[in-house]
User: Fold these one by one.
Assistant:
Number 1:
Amino acid sequence: MKETRLSRRAFLGLGATAAVAAGAAGLAGCAPQQSAGTASAEGDGSPNGGSASSVSPTKYTPDFLTPPPVPTDVKEEKDCDVLVIGMGIAGTAAAKEAAEAGKKVIVLEKQPEDSYSVISMAGDFGVVGSQIQKDLGIEWAPKEDIFNEFVKETGGRCDTWMMNYWYDHSGEDFDWFIEGADYEVLESTAANRKTDKPNFIRPKCFPPLETYNYKEEVYPYFHGTITTNPNMQWACEAAFNAAVAGGAELIYNAEGEQLIVENDKVVGAYAKTPDGYLKVNAKAVVLCCGDYGANPEMRHYYAPWTEEFMGGVDDGRGQLMGIWAGGWMELGPHAPMTHHMGGSLGVDSFLQLNMEGKRFMNEDVPGQNIAAEHTRQPVAKDPELAKAGVKAWQIFDSKWPEQIIHMPDGHGYTTYFVPDDQAAEYETVLSGFGLGYTTQAMVDERTDVIANSLEELAEKTGLPLETMKAEIERYNELCHKGIDEDFGKMSKRMFPVENPPYYACKFGNAGMLVMFGGLECDHELRVTKDGTNDPIPGLYVAGNTMGRRLLVDYPRRGGRHQSGQRAHLRPPGRQERRRGSVGNPYARRFPPPFQTPREEAPSPSREGASVSAVCQMTRPLDTVTRPYCYDIFQKS
């Protein structure tokens, strides 16, 4: 077991595997499951049961719902007020909030110190009202517009109370999270850096595209996201350094494995370390262990429709610990974050043909919805394309440089053409990932197929020539007619394919970054007892381990995922002293045993902060403005 304070080296030690988690929640402090195991069948007549993948999700009780035996070989025991399990963005915010409230904090992190990382690529934060945004002149859409869209895209199965908190407080929570960090703020998305500071914040899609009006869109993008660069490591470092300054203790190589429950109250946890088991006694435990996307058995049981998507970061141990302690998973449908990033021009709304050469969709939708559309399309007959999961080709012609300005604004889209002789003026933005700017050379290099005739295009893509030609002719006819009679695409984005050379980009099966689906909890982020709204004393949840944020589908709202991880971690405590508790829906004090006063002088803005406040700042998501992001994590 390695016990230490957080070091800059640890925070900057980006592991290669973390790149896979772009947009996901912070890596959890929970032990990975070594195998999917088997599940016991119910009602299928099999005395020996069967594997999770061989029976209906509703016909078996999976082994993972059975708690493991209580560890007996405890090598060390510690005591604290607040135990945080997992040091991603949610756990970091929880540790800072609790430490600044004067509590004795221990954080368990399963990663070794020398390879620890949060997320190597994520950085989009969909926050509202940050001082950074105010200084830049960034304004968000009205709350009611965002709320109504969020409710629509999640089928009404989101928690609008949490959305309220996010809209009203995420900006000030973001400012609090990055206190003490040294960074540069770019004036616009395309602005070049003016200092040699390694860390900088870039506003996303700012200024907004003049040709874009979110009120016209099927899936609107709400501007306002800001992005930490080169990733969110430095932001988390600033927050955790503040936690360490407040006395928080970090233990690496400690995999949270099982909670300690006495008289229906959570009083600590066991963690597996290289030296044996560590027992931590705590007055409150905060589960910040990420999602369950990397646990195939849990995905089959809770969200079998997501099994075609590769990816996932965390193994669901946080959710399982909560279930074993008497909690329960929120009802579905759970929502995978699977937004496609497209080809050389991102997910711009150009013609798409499936592997049979047929048009199949209104292409004017964002990457998350493109991924959903592709699930119904046939697999390629070509073995290599089938193995790569290619479901469609995006096709456009040589007129693309003048057309992309009319494409949607936001995450995944390319809307600005930079002539080669001006590329040096856009060095910073062109070197970034998916920021909406491109050059002829970049498109030529990143396009899978470039052809001078439709015959050559069919040959290189493997599409059936006659079918492909007929579909392109029909599409061109509709473009010139100015109305999409087949799929209803907006007329201003109907561009014919008739000016060679022709470009084609493969659209494969989208990977999954995060699985939204977590423990049921109340608005204090206290995990509730199975089948009830009654909280389990001593147990809190945050980040991707928690439920109540969204279901059905992941709305593309730039960075809401990540900003929510922080914002739901610390609401009430600060507002309580600032506004007073009378008539303030967010003013809540610590539940016992956190009503004891601080021994040291309270911060003028943090007095009365609670573990429930701590938990509520967790998460990205992300992500309501389509950052994510990658939630925080990937991840707006």
Note: The CA atoms of residues 204 and 488 lie 29 Å apart.
Number 2:
Amino acid sequence: MSQHTLKFSCLLIVIFLGLDLNARVVLPALFADHMVLQRDKPIVVWGEAIYETEVTVTFNDLTEICLVENGRWKTTFPAMPAGGPHKLTVKGSNTILIEDILMGDVFVCGGQSNMEWPLRNVNNAEAELKNTNFPNIRMFTVEQEITDRKTLSLEGAGWAIANEKTVADFSAIGFLTARLLHQEYEVPIGLIDNAWGGTNIMGWMPEEAFANQQSFEKMIQTFKDTHNGESSFRQAKLDYAEQLELSDVGLFQGWSEPEFDKSAWKKINAPGLWETQGFPDKDGFFWLSKKIELKTVPEDKPCKLGLAKIDDDDLSFVNGLLVGSTQGYNETRIYDFFSDHLTEGINEITVRVKDTGGGGGFHGLTSDMFLVCESMDTMTLAGNWSIAEGSVNLPTLSKTYDANAFPTNRYNGMVHPLTPYPIAAYLYYQGESDTWQAKTYETLLQNMIRSYRTAWNDNQLPFVFVQLANFMAQDETPVESDWANLRQAQTAALKLPYTAMVSAIDIGEADDIHPRDKQTVAVRMAASLKRLVYNESLIFDGPPLEKVFTNSFGTLLTFRTSEKGLTVKGNDKKINGFVIETLEGKLIKIPGILQSKSAILLEYTKPFKSIRYLWANNPGDVQVYNEEGFPVNPFKYVSN
């Protein structure tokens, strides 16, 4: 075969696509109406053909005849600038036509729940949703999958055009970042969301990233040996859900009815997860019930039932009548119904809770548990509830379907299928599930970045990641912190070129691992992308520590800043957040003073082991920024 023929012929794809076998020529789910292809990079098209020996592919008036080998085909078209719309036609014994294709910038949004977090749950969500009508921002969500071997197949519902309806449940950070970039550069933006809440880093990494790491290599081999040939994650979940429903005796015995005798049920305090109140490590179905007495009931008036948050899903009843149901552990439940559901005297509220792992039951704010009707005072529902376990002979889902059980399990079916698809950058928000292993995480994150660049065949692929936000109650005295260690592990990845870290140390919430301020994260992420992708000359992160000097006046820390220097927020001239680790290992808070535009003085003259800044799960108020609004990031300086 000549070089010319090789250039224009399809290349062998050696990994089974697993696509729809009822069609003769098929494309991956990524190839659909409204898709966005990466501008200024070669355009790769691939698929499967069941019977054909060749496939004709036409894009933008260019046509290639692709040879089919072992049922797979692949071809490449020349790079194109931003614009569109274009059409793609793939023809064998059947013809596939894809329309409204735009050339623009494609970003993959990976990680766990803070990347997954939807726009409808951010601060000022109503206003944000009204500003979502951007026809040239397109979105694709990768369906969750677990597989023991790499595949080029993935599931998804196709590309959606950004509007209030389609964006509401899409990644807030992804969309808000895209909106800023689109408004700035007027280039079409494609977003691919493949985040999965609660996941660790090792499942997002390919096998090659674990070379010479025996413990991980052993786990990968165990995964292959035990998972081989099992159903898709979607089918496994469906089968498990059916078996789980059948395990709930409460549903079949009518536990939602007030007439059912609940006198033998145990007591629990709400809000509060049942694992901490006598039901450790319990999943499945639980039923919770509370009786309240109403002296009078207004006639035919609207009412609201507030049940705070429920982990994971619920069916909620008032006197045996279903008034609402919600899926999702972090959704606040408020159900509307009419007062004819109530009666004077004793009323019963019953909630059927489905928990598929981790904590289960009521959680959130006490004030969010209430019953109120028009012309009636609000009644709190916090406090004692009765509880009983509904699941009998609880089914088990194979460990190989545990999203956090094995390395590579999510990469194989959720990241690898994207790698032939050129992108502008990879955006990543993850680490909350790995705070217990910061040192290992430091190695894994850097190996992951390198492996992604290899997989996309792009040594300069920008990788932008979010550092963990402040979280949990503040400690009154300095203590060691897993979250601070993890942030340091994330910072270490900046030694790799074409990386950027987005600080979130000042936008977190003490009582919620999911900060609602995704807007600040998006602004900072967009700044990083303006530098790495759009080659803008601008400040896109906080001032790094440059040097440390100690003399008889104290310890001076200098920072690398622009001419504008450091700024200190607030009226307090003392800068909090600094901790000295003495030679004896004691941790002491030492306030700082802004000494110059680029230096902070600590009044400590003795030798020390380390200086720490914002080194805590939640360090509290952040005071030191540059003029561009980026905070000095947490750090630990170790004395020589």
Note: The chain has twelve helices and 37 strands.
Number 3:
Amino acid sequence: MPSRRILILLGAFAAGFGLLVARLAQLQIVETDEHKRRAEARRAWRETLPAPRGRILAAGGEPLARDDAAYDVLAFPDEVQDPGALAALLGEAQQDVERRLVAGMAAFLEGMSPEQIRAFREAEADEEAGTAAQANGRSKPAPRLWTRRAHPIAFDLARADVLRIAEAAERFPELSIATRRIRRVPEGALAAHLVGTVGAITAEDVKRRTGVDISAPGGWREAARVLREKGLRLSDAVGRSGLERAFEETLRGREGYRVFEKDPKGRRIRLLEEVAPTPGADLRLSLDVRLQRAAEESISGHRGAAVFLDCRTGAVLALASSPGFDPNHPKTQSGPDIPALNRAISGLYPAGSAMKVVTAAAGLRTGAIDRETSFDCQKHFPGSASFQCEGLHGPISLPEAMQRSCNIFFCHTADAIHRRRGSALPDEARAFGFGERTGIDLPGEAEGSVPSTPNPGDARNLALGQGALLVTPIQIARMIAAIANGGFLVTPRLEAGIPLSPIPIEGLEPKVLAEIRKDLELVVMESGGTAHRAYLEAKPGVNIAGKTGTAQAPGGSHAWFAGYAPAEAPRIAFAIIWENAGVHGSEAAREIFRAVGAWAAAPPTAPSSGREAPEDTPSP
């Protein structure tokens, strides 16, 4: 009989042979499809063709934002055979190239949550599975697929380097050259708050665009699926602020792709499928670049804003906010003065004496005052030390009170209005558009607030533009535009060629407007007016009407001016604020008068269309 040792050896051999047979069976029978799918995925290689984003153009056709092509070198880390030779080809240090290869997806996934990363990988697996299935004649994607991804190892190559690396493709089959779109803002900081920025999709974007509860089990994967249906991926860049965000659907194109068959060495054999990218549409604005520069110069060195509107249509001719930033350099968007804040539409301030325009309208409309009504200004309001005037004007009527910005006259006017109807002044402020968004086609606009006036003291505060009244510069520009255009509230628009009917202010009679317009002209064009000296110094070359304002605020008073030009036949309305400047509104008036002079020298012509077919863009 065989010895016990021989039996043990035979048993061990049989067991080992059995395991080998079982493993072979698993590989050849159970996992055959899996290995076929892996092979197919390696053979069918999908290259994304990014879609050019539409340009943002000023009224004269000047590009404010455009896409430029950038060329990157991508590599499959697991296929790199000689890192030293690869580094020599790229002209970089070997350790830098190796570090990027090791980093792999890390840089690509920077900032993503674990759920986003998981959803991204699952979505990419679904996409690559579908590509492999279609390329090999199957109607349904495989349920599981080993995914692999090329990672960027060199960026923004010059065209000569691209050609040199392409010639070496046979020696380096692990490499590919990808075309990437970079958003460029040729004018840098000019109109940066309008143009806005482009950046990676955030969790907030995902929820807003998909409506999916991403906190639920499988939420991120479902969100990724919905985004794919909309032509987006979690790795895409989208408009983050300004026009880039407001017109995302217009500007964003739809990416295309190419599917190649590759041999075992990674060389392309043939093109299996190609879908060309669809470029985004161009967006043309009403913005005049020359006037925009002048508006930005008027607030240079100050926190503040300046706005120019076509007072008849609401077309935005210039909209500036300071401090600014350069969208080409994201780090410039942060700082203690919050440069990313668009103060023209989001900054909230007391209106100061600019509110006296509305107070005069309320007084005339309620019959509380008329042109001849006179109040005695003795520098202090009787019975209240809180309300004072800069001058001692004596008996004074509306025209001179507007011209000299007499606080005491408008305090008496507030009392007279309040006696007739306690809500009349707040109602008038709302009628002129305060306390509501103007409807400008930019995200992030603030509403402001209009307080109630339960007692005469509150009414006086409101009449002088103080207290709880908060407005934005674009609301002030819209208010003064209504005085200039015959009593209509316009809807400010940046997109050209979008006519919106102005809204008439109910019950605002022409004789009331005529009186206020005569008085506002005195402020600027006549000696003794609070802005007359500024007008003489600026020499704008066109008659201007408007109102200065100095609003008390923590940190120093704000300097305001709101006006329109030409005074006799208005075409533009404008407003400027210097935040916490601690100077009179006439100082800011002088600078915006210079901007008006730039406009008057060559008034812009409005473009005919807001959205245009994109330029022919060569395929990447």
Note: Confidence is low (pLDDT under 50) at residues 105-111, 135-148, 616-620.
Number 4:
Amino acid sequence: MLDYLQFFFEDPRQIISFGAVIIVWSGLIGLGSIFSRDNEDVALYPILGWGCVTLVFTFVGTLTKIPFTYIALALALIAAGFSCYLIWRKQRLIDPVFWRMIIWGTPLFLLVSAMLGSQWDEFSHWLHGQKYFLQHDQFPGKGRPLSAASFPAYPYAWQLLAYFAGRITGSIVENAASFFNILLLFTLARLAVGHALKLTGDQSIISRSPWLIASLAAAVASIFNPTFVQKVVLTAYADAATSVTLAVGVLIGWSMLEALAVSDIKRARRRALMAGLAFAILISLKQSTLELFGLGLGALFFVGLVDSRIRLLALLQCITIAATPGILAYGGWRHYVANELQGREFVIKPFEMWQTELIPSILYKMGYVLLKKSAYLAAMLIAIVFGVRGLIIGSTEYSRAMLTIGLIFLGHTVFLAFCYVAVFHGHEAKTIASYWRYNQQLGGLAMLVVGLSGSMLIARYRAQFSISRLKWLPAILVLLAPMIFAHKIRFDKKPAYGHYRLVGVDVASRIEPNAGVRVLDPKGSGESGLMLRYEISDVTHNFGYQAAFHDISAEALSKYWQSIRTEYVVIHSVTPAIQSVFGDNFKDGNSYLIQKTETGSPNILATWAWPQID
């Protein structure tokens, strides 16, 4: 029983980290209220506020040397001022359904509050951004301390949120991004359910049964979400944030198109600006999100173009407004990268290096992966079928929404196929590396399909099937699922993760500044090396590792050992090849820190026993 409770309660600092995230979220709400005063937009405030933060930090952070702390304080004062003003005017700041969703999600939030970083990309890239900001209060660049992140030229809209939480607590908050992922998914689910009820003409149920709508929305965000993968959502990865900002931008874009259809140009332009703020975040999350930015705007333009009620000039004006914040953010960051961080990103290979011979294999494997993810594929096929159907027999607001999503899915699939041919190398291209994860970036659109299509089905068959007895089912599922699957959600408790980090902290305390550190883990995937690099990054950036996918034969290890001079070497797993080079006193089941003696033999400086696995 005690072991089970430790899934939820491990450290009093859990309260502090969650409190810091809520303070940051409240600040985003205050900033977002600048852009709309309509009660229907209250749930959008955090996204709008985040868009404002992204633009401010992109320009002020790249064009000036003002420390991030001062920029954050200035924005916090503005947010507090607008929040106080709205409170004085007795206007809403928090959506009544949303705070109920947080209460329904309490078990999930408790689990997340106890979690720490554990996944590959967290330690190769995402956590390094937050750490860098807390230590140096600026973007990396020329004449500034080096960043240990794998891709320091990636934009930083995502790490900024965790940085704010860390600045409040005074130290890095590794699970801040996980909290924000859930809050963002809850926000999108709230908007999706609200839009679905608008389509069915039953919006009054929100005020009549807010707890019911909150539980349903929370279920859409988690249990009924076709792309809710805990090792992505409950980590510092930016994929969930990408999916939400894309979907929110598209959803606001729909209301822009509906306003254009009834010639309400003023409202349409307002909605275009709001969509633009969401798209500005999207394009500032990762290098590759430029593609999603273009697909989102392109799909909205096409849907508006085939709608006979919308005038072309007005549509072009609104699409331009929606694109402008993102173009400014992208242009500002690209200018900074060109001058400060060249050559530290993914690049398209020269045409003669494209792996065109792999195209049939790549397409086959992409189709196979999609078939395995049947719920996600079904959502996208529904969008394509009903979108095309609307083009043929006459469009409705629902079919136009589905057409937008279907176009983005098809465009994204073509883009990924191109990347495997022209961007990825060797093994990554052959195995379509991370293809499912890249599709999770459309997870927010899948949520919209689930929410809108489910609502349409219920509305259509409400008379034939009584669902009143099932109205509390979403609440029960949302409350119980985290409790039942706590052991799966707390994947960070895997003993190996704790061992790798313990070794990393100890090594960092033993080595000299700028010392060379190497990791040998012939049985590992390489994550042990990345975790150690993260823990020692405050002391040195002189690091390298070899794992199972390298040549770890006795001959290769012998040459490797000959190349070592004064570097420290951490051995995480022992094989016969390791023993043949370093000696029989190295036993599997231990990790070792060694250094080369003058005679060439290994000197064991520290030994750590691997934890016992039940």
Note: The first helix runs from residue 2 to 5.
